[in-house]
Amino acid sequence: MPNISPILDVAIGLVFVFSLLSLIATWLQEYIAALFKLRSKHLANIIQNLLDPSMEKLAGVKELEKKWEEGIGDKVIPKLKSNAVKAFYEHPIIRGLSAPKRLPSYIHPRDFGTALFDLLTKAGTEDSSARNELEALKAGIGKLGNETTEGALLALLKPIEAIETKTEKRIAAARHSIELWFDATADRATGWYKRSASRLAILIGIVLAVAFNADSIGLAQALWGDTALRDSLVAASTVYVEQGEDGKASDAREQLDELGLPIGWSLQTDDDDPKTPVDPRDFPSSAGGWVLKSLGLLLTGFAVSQGSPFWFDFLNRFTNMRGTGKKPESD
């Protein structure tokens, strides 16, 4: 039976490198998301889609951001009909969810429901015929100025009025329905954000692979031919697993430097001599070499995009298979 230990060691070494690069990629992705305010813009698009779906999303968010950056201060909240999205974001509850001049990146369904319910009922009280909060709510919905949103909210109230007879219970159920309406929409929209984030993760992974010249194929070949390098990576990965997955990007970068891996660019071209040891850090000298190098870099890029928790789990399993991982906890 062939000895699978070298194969397993090569796999551990590659997965360890993927895990470290993934930590750096995660930090970069978070930095980019914060720099370009991706989460707050995504949330603003959700709010806009709910309250004013007729407005062009990008234009609406840019306008909202500009007003937010100017500082809202104690300005009068605009009427719902003039701009429901701005009115919502300028509500004191929503305004207090983020730092000054920054749109909030997360809104709890309860906060959404409370703010919108308050805006609608206040708008409805302008109609003197409203005798209670429920009637004020329905009157306020009619002042939104958008048939799609008005229809959606009125549709939420119909089953409540059919089931509940007491006004207090109807009001409580209406609040809850508005919260669920936002929560369900946000859940669906999270899928859109995740797909966008996945594309960004792949791009970051490929950029990192190229920047570090972390060529999966070249690394595998180097590990296969260097027992000492394999052993050092297995030992380092064991310590890494025992410490847990709460690593930092700066630590990962430092560890990559300390491992003595054949990564990075030598700024030299390989001589394509079969008698000379292959150095993955060299630029390929042939078309075939570039194809292999590009494939290795793409493999690393896609691997890194899977995220550090994904590779940490694999690393934990592989080190346990080898018998050097963490021992199971006793009952």
Please supply descriptive tags for the structure shown above.
331 residues, mainly alpha, 14 helices, 69% helix, 0% strand, disordered C terminus
Give a description of the structure.
The chain has 331 residues and is mainly α. It folds into 2 domains: 5-35 and 200-322, no CATH class; 38-190, no CATH class. It has 14 helices and no strands. Helix 1 (5-35) crosses helix 9 (167-212), helix 2 packs antiparallel against helix 9 (167-212) and helix 6 (109-124) packs across helix 7. The chain starts with a helix and ends in a 9-residue tail after the last helix.
Helix fraction bin? 55-70%
Major beta sheet summary: none
Q: Give the H and E element order.
A: HHHHHHHHHHHHHH
Output the radius of gyration.
Answer: 28 Å
Structural class: mainly alpha
Q: Cα distance, first to last residue?
A: 36 Å
Question: What's the number of helices?
Answer: 14
Question: Which spans have pLDDT < 50 for at least 5 consecutive residues?
Answer: 71-78, 324-331
Number of domains: 2
Question: Approximately what portion of the residues adopt beta-strand conformation?
Answer: under 5%
Q: What do the pLDDT scores average to? A: 84
What's the shape? elongated
* Strand segment count: 0
Summarize the structure.
With 331 residues, the protein is mainly alpha-helical. The chain has helices at residues 5-35, 38-51, 57-70, 84-89, 92-95, 109-124, 133-141, 147-163, 167-212, 216-225, 227-243, 249-258, 287-304, 308-322. It is elongated.
What is this structure's SSE topology?
Elements: H1 5-35, H2 38-51, H3 57-70, H4 84-89, H5 92-95, H6 109-124, H7 133-141, H8 147-163, H9 167-212, H10 216-225, H11 227-243, H12 249-258, H13 287-304, H14 308-322
Helix pairs in contact: 1-9, 1-10, 1-11, 1-12, 1-14, 2-3, 2-9, 6-7, 6-9, 8-9, 9-13, 11-14
